[in-house]
Amino acid sequence: MQGIGQIIPLLLIFGIMYFLLIRPQQKKLKEHQAMVAALRRGDRVITQGGVVGKVTKVKDDDNEIEVEIASGVNVRVVRSTIATVLNKTEPAK
């Protein structure tokens, strides 16, 4: 009986850590994956490196997108490095 009394605080600590740390991280990861999957041509984005640009080409087969960072200057960027979408374009009807 005394062994169970010592395990209960450890289980409570694990439960609290799960709800305060692990669960929010998983939620944020799912939101980021959904944001990256919804990228379209014309969206203005910020990469994790701080580069601001406009999406010019989305490659479905690869894990890359093409971003125009200046007039006539296009770079290929891995999708997962997109940190934020600034302006979302409307979907085609």
Report the total helices. 1
Largest sheet: 5 strands, antiparallel
Q: Globular, elongated, flat, extended or rod-shaped: what is the shape?
A: rod-shaped
Structural class: alpha+beta
The tally of beta strands, per DSSP, is: 5
Rounded mean pLDDT score: 89
C-alpha end-to-end distance: 66 Å
Q: What sequence of helices (H) and strands (E) makes up the elements?
A: HEEEEE
With strands numbered from the N-terminus, the spatial order across the biggest sheet is 4-3-2-1-5
Query: Which percent range fits the helix content?
Result: 25-40%
Description:
This protein is an alpha+beta fold. It is built from one helix and five strands; from the N terminus they run αβββββ. The chain has a five-stranded antiparallel sheet. Strand 2 and strand 3 (64-70) form a beta hairpin. The longest helix has 36 residues, at 2-37. It is rod-shaped.
Essential attributes:
93 residues; alpha+beta; 1 helix; 5 strands; 39% helix; rod-shaped
Topology:
Layout: H1 2-37, E1 44-47, E2 52-58, E3 64-70, E4 73-78, E5 82-87
Antiparallel strand pairs: 1-2, 1-5, 2-3, 3-4
